[in-house]
Amino acid sequence: MRLVEIYEGTLFECQMIKNLLENEGIESNLKDEIIGTRGGNVWRQAGGVKIIISDDNYEKARIIISEFEKSRKD
Length: 74
What we know:
The chain is α+β, with helices and mostly antiparallel strands. Helix content is 47%, strand content 23%. It has helices at residues 11-23, 41-46, 58-73; strands spanning 3-9, 28-31, 49-54. It has a three-stranded antiparallel beta sheet, covered by helices on one side. The longest helix is centred in the C-terminal third of the chain and has 16 residues, at 58-73. It is globular, with a radius of gyration of 12 Å.
């Protein structure tokens, strides 16, 4: 098992995605959670909060995240 970064965004977005992933049985962790909450748009441009998962769950998680992103555009 290897850990991979699958998403980068705001703390709010990452918390929502983390909940979606966990509802589907995919364990995930947030990285740079504190840094991502400081500085507003400045940190978003420089890199915000990241979601880390096991590479075993990558494909399933990618589908869930794609659906999340699609729903935000609608």
